Amino acid sequence: MKKQLLALAAVAACGAALAQSSVTMYGVIDVSVGKTTGGEFGLNGGKSAISPAQSYHTPTRIGFRGTEDLGNGLKANFNFESGGIRMGDGGPGMDFSREAWVGLSGNFGSTRFGRTSSFGTQGHARFDLNGISTSSAMDNAGISPVTWYGSSRRSTQLQYVTPTMGGFDAGVSLVPAGNNSGQSSVSVRANYGNGPLAVGYVAETKRSDANRTAQALAGSYDFGVAKVVAGYVVRETEAAGKGVYVGAVAPVGTAVKVGFQHARNSTTDVNATELFASYALSKRTSLYVDFVTRNDDRKSYGIGLLHTF
């Protein structure tokens, strides 16, 4: 309770200090029922597991973001985001472990310093057509750039991203050795988006001698009747592997979307196929069904209600 009160006090203090700024509270609420069965890596020794009142598609979270106009096109920005909120019992509270950074933006681009999402997440989450859900084929095959080094975030990270010019932007970030396995790491990203076409590249140098440079290249094209995606990923260790993925999503009427994604890790010989569908009750609320199966007989599905605010 004390930690929660301190966290709220910190947010209130930021709000008071930035009285001239714009501060927004936002979040995601995902309530669902999911089940996983079988597979070498299945839950409870391969037996089925049911997870009620949890976030199957995307983690339930709440955040506060703000910006202050400093004049001459310069702005100060911050973002605090808390995860780990359980819909079953309301615990465990806010710790802002998802996002906690401050930065500047202007004609030169933007900076962030603190705990923030990785370039693998910022650049390639959009190429996961189902929003990097629990059923993500890429994650289940072990080749998702979002979960390099076991996390979609980096602490004590300094990021710089250029302004978007003709649909193109690039960035570089640094994580010091003290927050890695004894070796500082550098990430670079390059994104291009123009109309229906999007292309992205990201690389992250090794954190220790046991690692290698992780890389990912992906692209998507929206034909109107369907959006297709394809990508190639090299993980941070040889054991983790490398592989390819493809996918497509299509609207059915104005409220329904259906899609599939398939990923193959050529090193570990794990294949994952994902099927998903959603029904939009409004711009902010939708019902969803996600299903994924792997070639080791592991299967998982989730049915839920997702609301954003």
Helix coverage percent of residues? under 10%
Q: How many H/I helical runs?
A: 3
Under CATH, the homologous superfamily reads Porin
Q: What proportion strand?
A: over 45%
Uncertain runs are 1-19, 41-48
Main CATH class: Mainly Beta
The profile of the biggest β sheet is: 16 strands, antiparallel, barrel
- Report the mean per-residue pLDDT as an integer: 87
Number of strands: 17
Domain module count: 1
Termini, distance in Å? 25 Å
Rg to the nearest angstrom? 20 Å
Shape: globular
The structure class reads mainly beta
From the coordinates shown, what is the CATH architecture?
Beta Barrel
Cross-sheet strand order for the largest sheet:
1-3-4-5-6-7-8-9-10-11-12-13-14-15-16-17
Q: What name is given to the CATH topology?
A: Porin
List the helices and strands in order.
HEEEEEEHHEEEEEEEEEEE
